[in-house]
Automatic annotation (TrEMBL):
Gene Ontology, cellular component aspect: cytoplasm; nucleus
One GO-annotated biological process of the protein: proteasome regulatory particle assembly
InterPro entries: Nas2_N (IPR040815), PDZ (IPR001478), PDZ_6 (IPR041489), PDZ_sf (IPR036034), PSMD9 (IPR035269)
Name of the protein in question: 26S proteasome non-ATPase regulatory subunit 9
Organism: Vireo altiloquus (Black-whiskered vireo)
Signal peptide: none
Length: 201
């Protein structure tokens, strides 16, 4: 994915490279200062001539001048690299933020579309007896039933419809579709006689 203007997007390794470059420059500046220190502690601003205006004989003037010149150039480079590091970090953070926002928007859109595609329930499970066929099949309290064998929201009139389907399906698996926690779940339910009341429990 390229940024506008065909520029390659900034990566973490780009930032690491810039930081390495910054460290190198700092090491070079330090080496130049050490060189000046070795020349009788001449810093950046001490005079290079003696009291009479002659070039000082106790130091290597060429080395001192070169070191001073290099320090000035390196400090400029350092400033430029620091600016690049800052900009790269800004871009990186901005992209992370953008990506995060996009991911959130996609997740939201997916959740919305799932909700829209959920069928309508016609009954709700309000109790499941432990050990019953309903419990063994995995039906849970608060499951909203959207299909119970041949019964669905279009042909459901009352709970007698379900009782009829159950009686006709004793010992045979029924396909049951429920909505649980906003998701569609399929349950295979086999009505049969058990220790409790009814064929389901």
């Amino acid at each position: 994915m390229a940024e506008p203007g065909g520029v390659r997007p900034v990566t973490v390794s780009d930032v690491q490279q810039l930081v390495r470059r910054k460290d190198e420059i700092e090491a070079q500046i330090k080496a130049c200062y050490e060189l000046l220190e070795g020349q009788k502690g001449v810093g950046m601003h001490e005079p290079l001539v003696d009291a009479e205006g002659f070039p000082r004989a106790d130091i290597d003037l060429y080395q001192v001048r070169t070191a001073r010149h290099n320090i000035i150039c390196l400090q400029n480079d350092h400033k430029a690299v620091m600016k690049q590091v800052e900009e790269a970090l800004h871009k990186l953070h901005a992209r992370e933020k953008e990506k995060h926002a996009k991911d959130e928007a996609e997740a939201l859109a997916e959740a919305m579309s799932q909700n829209q595609s959920l069928p309508q329930a016609f009954a709700k499970v309000n109790a499941v007896t432990p050990g019953s066929p309903a419990s063994i099949s995995g039906l849970q309290v608060d499951d909203e039933i959207v299909e119970f064998g041949s019964v669905n929201v279009n042909n459901f009139q009352n709970l007698q419809n379900i009782a009829t389907v159950v009686q006709h399906s004793e010992g045979r698996p029924l396909s049951v579709t429920v909505i649980r926690g906003g998701r569609r779940v399929h349950v295979g339910l086999t009505p049969k006689r058990w220790a409790g009341k009814g064929l389901l429990g």
